[in-house]
């Protein structure tokens, strides 16, 4: 199965709160370009998409969603910037098992995206994700381990 981890697009530096920072025009276009590159890799469907409730992550998903077919979309407070990567990985593993998922996309933030990648790929140093960066992991739920299939950067 495949796990996709995407960092939101470039966002404004200032807003009323961190959660309310909106995407810039550059963030929108870079996210669209990364999604198009993902589609070029043959990815057109996600069984489940889990998105942070923060505005910039929501807008990133809105920007790229027209390029994909998604069966289910879930908003999760657990994947905000300082979410617990171990807890999120356990949750995703449970979803994979219970819902028989073949593909999951998480749209989240630094530093969590790097820590999540390291949860799903044993012995991986948490990578730095550029804004709009997307990592695809070929993942074995039985082994609780995966390997990077491809990495798309804007």
UniProtKB/TrEMBL annotation:
Entry keyword annotation includes Chaperone: no
Coiled-coil features, chain-numbered ranges: none
Molecular function terms, GO-annotated: protein histidine phosphatase activity
CDD domains xref list: HP_PGM_like
Organism superkingdom: Bacteria
Any single Pfam family the record assigns to this protein: His_Phos_1
Keywords on record: Hydrolase
InterPro entries reported in the protein's UniProt record: His_Pase_superF_clade-1, His_PPase_superfam, Mito_Ser/Thr_phosphatase, SixA
GO cellular component: cytoplasm
Name this protein carries in UniProt: Phosphohistidine phosphatase
Originating organism: Vibrio hepatarius
Lineage: Bacteria, Pseudomonadati, Pseudomonadota, Gammaproteobacteria, Vibrionales
């Amino acid at each position: 199965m495949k796990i996709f981890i995407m960092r939101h697009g470039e966002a404004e530096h200032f807003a009323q709160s961190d959660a309310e920072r909106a995407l810039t025009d550059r963030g929108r276009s870079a996210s669209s370009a990364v999604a198009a590159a993902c589609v070029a890799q043959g990815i057109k469907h996600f069984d489940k998409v889990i998105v942070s409730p923060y505005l910039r992550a929501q807008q990133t998903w809105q920007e790229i969603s027209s390029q994909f077919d998604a069966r289910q979309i879930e908003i999760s407070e657990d994947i905000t910037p300082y979410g617990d990567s171990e807890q999120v990985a356990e949750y995703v593993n449970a979803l994979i098992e219970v819902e028989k998922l073949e593909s999951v996309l998480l749209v989240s933030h630094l530093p969590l995206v790097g820590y999540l990648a390291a949860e799903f790929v044993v012995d991986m140093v948490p990578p730095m994700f550029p804004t709009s960066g997307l990592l695809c992991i070929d993942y074995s739920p039985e082994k609780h381990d995966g390997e990077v299939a491809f990495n798309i950067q804007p």
